[in-house]
Write a structure and sequence with these properties.
This protein is mainly α and about 475 residues long. It is about 80% helix and about 0% strand. The N terminus is likely disordered.
Length: about 475
């Protein structure tokens, strides 16, 4: 064992030792509450939900210790969730009520919508256009290859004797990409503005559209035995019209909305309300036409620019600085204005950031909590799942080959996480009776592995790229 490995192991042990007292204290505090709420039954106990939210938030912050190991905080949130959700295997049922708490489930969904809205705000629509063709090619390859691998290779090879419809659904499940996890890694490492991040984000949105089309077609084949070209064309048209319409019409009408609401009030509250409401409305419209709400939220963030809020007041710190320097020489005024201008432009991001600090960790911790590690204990299913996971990795990694003059590995690995999207596809297949419990368990394991392995791999690739760039500068 070399010195660096020893240091990493010591850090990891230290990380878990630091968490141990927290779990002990939590068990002592929460156990009586769980017992009381169980005995009460009947109406929802909101006070207990408040406690669960506090537990999740504190656990998420404690899990950020993984940053000392060079990993993004999202990995810590996922891992801490997996630990809390699987203490039942040790006979501890303390955190089981979180899994069925509808309020927490709602906050988790709202959290991922807010995250993608933030990602959209921080993304540049011009940069997205520049990588549009490459993102499209990455999305096409990232959907077609996993679908073929799942339907025609992995399915028949590892699960012989099943119906072709079962293989179709397995292939459809492998097409999905959960952009929230990858986007959070890029954001944690301040890499959202890189070409690789823009390609992955653009491809993931297109991926969602293509995945929706495949899911609709496969579901139609299962339920009615056939699918018409007209149905495929209509599903495709709805998805494309929404994305194009949201971006084009949003850019046209957003300035007018800003002007109208600014006439009512120019304060921070109105500014925040307009931005959040715009994001949630597009998330709703996306859901209504069959897309994931996160696609609508991302599109809303992409549309909104600082210019749409020019009728509102500047942040207080910016207006205070401008007031102080109004009698200063022109040259100093110009320099100070240039320095504070980015803070005025970032005001919406700054306003929404605290909301993200509250809601986004809930999503990732709850995602981890709902991971069932007992599925790993069935060896035949585990072996099948590992085969499916390999196909899931390969299917997305090859998509990076068409990303152009960027780090292809970062793009390919950035497309790997399946997350909740893969589970949704699998659950639909199960409800239609074509996905058995065994296949569903294998898909759950694949989702677990792609979700947990991607953040550290992506972090390693991004940091290695930084080192290479730094080395070239010194040469």
């Amino acid at each position: 064992m070399n010195v660096s490995t020893l240091k990493t192991n010591l850090k990891t042990k230290s990380f878990y030792h630091k968490l141990a007292p927290f779990f002990l204290l939590l068990a002592l505090v929460v156990s009586p509450v769980v017992q009381a709420s169980t005995e009460e039954g009947g109406t929802h106990d909101f006070a207990t939900t408040f406690l669960w939210i506090a537990v999740i938030l504190v656990a998420a912050k404690l899990s950020s210790l993984v940053e000392r190991l060079g990993q993004p905080s999202v990995l810590g949130e996922l891992v801490i969730g997996v630990i809390l959700g699987n203490l039942v295997l040790l006979g501890l049922h303390i955190f089981e009520p979180i899994k069925t708490d509808l309020t927490i489930a709602f906050l988790a969904e709202l959290g991922v919508v807010i995250l993608l809205f933030q990602i959209g705000l921080e993304s540049n629509i011009q940069k997205m256009r520049q990588v549009g063709l490459r993102a499209f090619l990455v999305a096409i390859i990232g959907v077609v290859v996993p679908f073929i691998l799942g339907t025609y290779v992995v399915g028949p090879l590892l699960l012989p004797g099943l119906s072709f419809n079962a293989y179709l659904f397995l292939g459809a499940t492998l097409t999905a990409t959960s952009v929230g996890i990858t986007a959070r890694v890029f954001r944690d490492l301040n890499k959202l503005q890189t070409s690789e991040a823009q390609i992955v984000l653009g491809a993931a949105v297109l991926d969602d559209v293509l995945g929706l089309i495949i899911l609709a077609v496969v579901s139609a084949i299962v339920t009615i035995g056939a699918v018409s070209f007209g149905m495929i064309a209509w599903i495709t048209a709805k998805a494309i019209l929404f994305l194009v319409g949201a971006i084009v019409l949003g850019q046209i009408f957003a300035p007018y909305l800003g002007k109208i609401f600014a006439k009512i009030h120019t304060g921070v509250g109105m500014k925040l309300t307009l931005a959040i409401s715009f994001g949630l409305t597009l998330a709703y419209l996306a859901q209504k036409i069959g897309l994931a709400p996160i696609v609508g939220a991302f599109a809303a963030g992409l549309v909104l620019d600082p210019v749409h809020f020019r009728y509102f007041k500047d942040p207080k710190v910016v207006s205070d600085v401008k007031e102080i320097i109004k009698d200063a020489p022109q040259e100093i005024q110009q320099k100070v204005n240039e320095a504070v201008e980015p803070h005025a432009h970032r005001h919406i991001e700054d306003l929404i950031e605290p909301i993200g600090f509250f809601l986004v960790p809930i999503f990732f911790v709850v995602t981890g909590i709902n991971v069932k590690l007992e599925t790993l204990f069935n060896l035949p299913i585990l072996l099948v799942a590992l085969g499916i996971t390999v196909a899931a990795f390969i299917g997305k990694i090859v998509s990076g080959l068409v990303a152009g003059k960027v780090n292809k590995s970062i793009v390919g690995f950035g497309m790997i996480p399946r997350g909740e999207v893969g589970l949704i596809f699998a659950m639909i297949g199960k409800s239609l009776g074509v996905v058995s419990d065994e296949i569903f368990s294998a898909i759950v394991i694949m989702v677990i592995l792609t979700t947990l392995l991607t953040p550290p791999i992506l972090t390693f690739l991004l940091k290695r790229q930084d080192k290479k760039i730094e080395t070239k500068r010194h040469i």
